[in-house]
Amino acid sequence: MKPVRPQRPRQRQAGFTLIEVMIAIVIMAVLSLIAWRGLDSMGRANTQLQLRTEETARLMRALQQIERDLSWRTTTELPSAAIEAIPESQEAATPGTRRGPRAAVPVPLLPAGMEVRRLTETPFLVEVVRAAPAAPGRWQRVQWWIQSGTLYRAAGPAADAYPLPAPQAADRVAVLEGIASFEVRAWEPEQGWRRLPATGQANNAASGLELALGVRRSAGPAMQYRRVLAFD
After folding, report:
1. At CB < 8 A and 24+ separation, what contacts does 66-69 make?
2. In 3D, which of 119, 121, 127 has the Cα closest to residue 144?
3. Dist. CA 89–CA 170, nearest whole Å
4. Across 138-165, average pLDDT
5. 163-176 per-position pLDDT tens digit
6. Among 128, 104, 107, 101, which residue's Cα sits nearest to residue 116?
7. Residue 209, exposed/middle/buried by CB under 10 A (0-12, 13-18, 19+)?
8. Full-prediction pTM beyond 0.85?
9. DSSP string covering 31-77
10. Which of 11, 35, 56, 68 is such that its CA lies 20 to 30 A from the CA of 80?
């Protein structure tokens, strides 16, 4: 008789059970969800950053354009609106009385070629007479104003004689939207900042200008931007 060899036990086949596979799938799903939320948050933050960058760039271009209009403003070409001093010969003096010191003569606060006014249909308007860049020797009226939360600019046709034609409705361009406020102040030496349009006479001509813009985002309070320009 042949000896009977003992049978070796069959090796168990390597693999994963159904529970192990389900646990792995759940872990992968959780990791995928976390990664997707992180990528989505980064994408939204990048979009908001791009929007803020574009808004800031538009604001800076608007302020630079205002500064350029002011730097190219007219000086002696416009008729001066300054109040002339009263000649000493016309000053009333009673015989036998001592003449007191002469009062300060009022002068225009803003330089020639610039005007700030408030109207019924336009709450705030700044007008500058500046040199026409495309027409040497000619001048044009440029207006800035706020209407329905939008900052507009309009440049009239260039001309070489006064009165200069005013800008028309077709000339206006929407420069910046979402404007909550637009204020301009002038610095009067020895007096300080004066809100425009000025209500009283000035003793000294303004040496600088302050532009203040309040820009309202889609949510949250308006952001205040300020730029100070010195007159030459």
Report:
1. 66/126, 66/144, 66/211, 67/227, 67/229, 69/128, 69/130, 69/142, 69/144
2. 127
3. 53
4. 89
5. 888 898 889 999 98
6. 128
7. buried
8. no
9. HHHHHHHHHHHHHHHHHHHHHHHHHHHHHHHHHHHHHHHHHTB-SSS
10. 68
With b meaning 16 or more CB within 10 Å and e meaning fewer, what string describes 10-43? eeeeeeeeeeeeeeeeeeeeeeeeeeeeeeeeee
CA angle, corner 28, sides to 23 and 34, nearest 5? 130
Amino acid identity of residue 179, one-letter, is I
114 exposure class (CB count in 10 Å sphere: 0-12, 13-18, 19+): buried
CA angle 111, 171, 62 (to 5 degrees): 60
**pLDDT band for position 187 (cuts 50, 70, 90):** very high
Rg (CA), the chain: 36
**Encoded amino acid at 173, one letter:** V
